[in-house]
Every structure is written in C-alpha cells, then in structure tokens.
Amino acid sequence: MSQLLILAAEKENPLVPPIPELVIGLIAFVIVFGFLAKKLLPTINKVLEERREAIEGGIEKAEAAQTEAQSVLEQYKAQLAEARHEAARLRQEAQEQGAQLIADMRAEGQRQREEIVVAGHAQIEADRKAASQALRQDVGKLATDLAGKLVGESLEDHARQSRVIDRFLEDLEEKAEATR
C-alpha cells in the first residue's frame, strides 16, 4: 500500500482513488459487510439449510418410494408368475378332462355299437325264424297240394297234412345235408 501512496503522490493516476475516498469506501464496505454478516447471512444460511434438508428429505422419500415401487413390482411379478402357473395348470387340467371325455365318448359309442350289433343279430335271427316259419307253412301248403294231386285224394285233414309236411321237410333236409 505504501507504494501505492507513493505512486499516487507522484502523479494523479485516474485508476488509483484518493486516500480519503478509499478510507471511506473501506469503512462503508466493513459496515455493509458487518450488517450483511449479522442480518442476512444467518437468514441465508437458514434458507440454505432448509433447502439442504428438503433435498435430503426428498432424496430419502424418493429412495423410499423407489424401494416401495421395487417391492410392488416384485409382488406383481410374483402374482403374474403365479397366474401363469395357474393358467398352465388349468390348461393341463382341461386337456386331461377333454381326453377323458373323448375316451368316455368312445367307450359309450363302442357300447352303443355293440348294443346295435346285438339287437341287429337278434332281429336277424327273429326275421330268419319268422321267414323259416312262413316258408315252412308255404312249403307245407304247396307240398300238401302237390301230394293231394299226386295221390288223387284230398289231404285236408290237418293231422294228415302235418305228417305229410313233416316227412317232406325231413326228406328235403336229408337231401340238403347229403349234398354238402
């Protein structure tokens, strides 16, 4: 500072202020700085501290929210996996039930087919017996008429007619067996 004073004394330098102004400026600066340090600095520090706490609290809240979101995500993933497992189990169960239903329907169809075949055989046998009976009667009638024409007498007597028919049919059956 002494060099500054020397320089200022030698000549007036426009960049170097006069000493009384410098002293007054310095005193004003100290007063303003002291006032700011006493009044504004605590308020500024208080606001900065509040902001820091708010930011830290916000970070903690964000971390808590993130942790909670992560746990909810894990729960949803677990529920989704469980739902997929349940859907696969239900699908498998439905396939098994479908296969069982198909097997039951096939068995029922087979049973109905067997019943139809048995009923058909019984009907055929009944029709065969009825046809045989009808054929016996027709053949007997024809044989009686033919025998009556050959013998020259009427064979209207029922007992005689039955004997002739029976003998005629027995002869036919013997001839049929002999040709086999």
Walk me through this protein's architecture.
- The protein has 180 residues and is mostly helical.
- Helix content is 91%, strand content 0%.
- The protein contains three helices and no strands.
- The model has no long low-confidence stretch (mean pLDDT 83).
Keywords:
180 residues, mainly alpha, 0% strand, rod-shaped
Summarize the structure.
Helix content is 91%, strand content 0%. It has helices spanning 2-10, 19-151, 158-179.
Give the CA-based shape: rod-shaped
Distance between the termini: 157 Å
Number of strands: 0
> Measured on Cα atoms, how large is the radius of gyration?
65 Å
Q: How would you summarize the topology of this molecule?
A:
Elements: H1 2-10, H2 19-151, H3 158-179
